[in-house]
Write a structure and sequence with these properties.
heterodimer; A: mainly beta; Neuraminidase; 5-stranded mixed beta sheet; 4-stranded antiparallel beta sheet; 5 helices; globular; B: mainly alpha; Cytochrome Bc1 Complex, Chain D, domain 2
Amino acid sequence: MKNKFNKYLVLMAGFAVSVSLYALKPGSEVVPDADNAGLKLPDGFGALKVAETGAKARHLVVTPQGDIYVKLARPNKEGKGILVLHEASNGKAELKSSFGTYGGTEVALKGGYLYASSNTEVFKYKVNDKNEVINPDQPEKIVTGLKAGRQHETKSFALDNDGNIYVNIGAWFNSCQEKDRGLHSPGIPGCPILDSMGGVWQFRTDKLNQSYGEGVRYATGLRNMVGMEWNQQDNQLFVMQHGRDNLNSSWPELYTTKQSAELPAECLYALKKGDNAGWPFMYYDQIQHKKIEAPEYGGDGKKEADAKYIDPAVAYPGHMAPNGLLFYTGNQFPTKYKNGAFIAFHGSWNRAPEPQAGYFVVFQPFKDGKPAGDWEVFADGFSGSPEKTAAGRADHRPCGLAQGADGSLYVTDDSKGTIYRIIYTKK
Amino acid sequence: MKKPILVIACLFCCAPLLAQIKTKAKPKPAARLAAVDGKGIYEKYCLTCHQGDGGGVPNMNPPLIKTSYVLGDKTRLIKVVLNGFSENVDIDGESYSNVMPSHDFLKDQEIAAVLTYVRKNFTNKAGPITTAQVKAVRATNKKKI
């Protein structure tokens, strides 16, 4: 049905249809690409490729004026780490400008400022009434001197409504072993690096040059987070942790390759000040539905961890790498999506030799700010084929999520740099 | 605790094994040595990161396909396996964020076999790495530490 509908649209294409649709609903002159940009979507949805940036496009924000700020993992050939695209009325965007000399993941817009982070600092840029950055070369540095290792180095963040910013400081280890990812290598007693990483730090958005001394370790025992979002209904921080790897390669006697591919869960946590999610001392086993002691700290795959560690709000299958989290507050999609969460799973690598998984966007229903009901795959097909997914050789890898002013859902791909826009087309 | 014992045990057993192969004395140990198959070691210790096709993982684990490390200087290549690898270097123009742990617990002939396997697969067409080469690198490698 959906395909026929799209084909019909394409046949009738162009100006006449656009204009008549525009008359029906503002913003609806944006039509899906003939092939829905290669995505597999629920009935009634369509997708288009907004732009091909050719860069490692991480997170993004879309302004009501149709500008798209895209944060790049590394500065591009011109040495710029933030792209500004502008959308034409057909939804296709062109590069408008670029700025920022640093790579990273996060970018956000709130209260008259654009926020963006490098791997060690967080900046803010004042925007004008059209949400355009006024002084792209003179950001205000609000946070500085954060630790960054080779892995888990990016500083995702979320903003609340009281002038606080919550920054991920990922641990530079897999599981705090004496020899990182080494065979039979034990955990460092007490994992002392938790004093300055492996958690969420809270800073003020209105103060400059804050570092560890000025910030608060808001929550600890979190290995690394890329997707973080403030839930407006519950007025609470939600994060998607990247669970640990290498259960089999470090502890082959305790975990088969199959168990190691499934475990541990990728967890959605609802965080309150002072929470401890237990990394590296435990992980969450979504099959046993238990918090299990990590093998580096005496665990055997069965022994339960200290009950003081918080439980996840939702546990997803292992290694799928949740890189984007967004609460949908728009009115374009059917009501079941309202206030639910979209999660972009970047796709696994640590499931080998078992087939890889992920490379899709998931919808997690919520009710009154709490997860309610089973998650489902919302947008699939980024990888190009099931075989490419299984082999981990994906064409596109979903990473960042954003909501447009009209309620469209935007998705970045940090492999080829495609920006997708998913729209609801059913009347 | 186990590691030094393993290494010592290995040093003790390698030499006689090798001697036996050279002289083609007893068939039994020879058969055991032939069983050190590079593919098996690759699958057990390397595949998790470098993947079944040797293609690695973008931004995380480098490919083992025609890289300057795989095809280049053998000493450097052997040292990657012995010492592990987490340098902030670009590998053929890309950087990788994961950490490769030391694999010094593998025996000389196991390292030789796995590297020979890597150098002859994934479209690589380079010559073998011998047990003697690994042994020599391990010896000087130790002196350095």
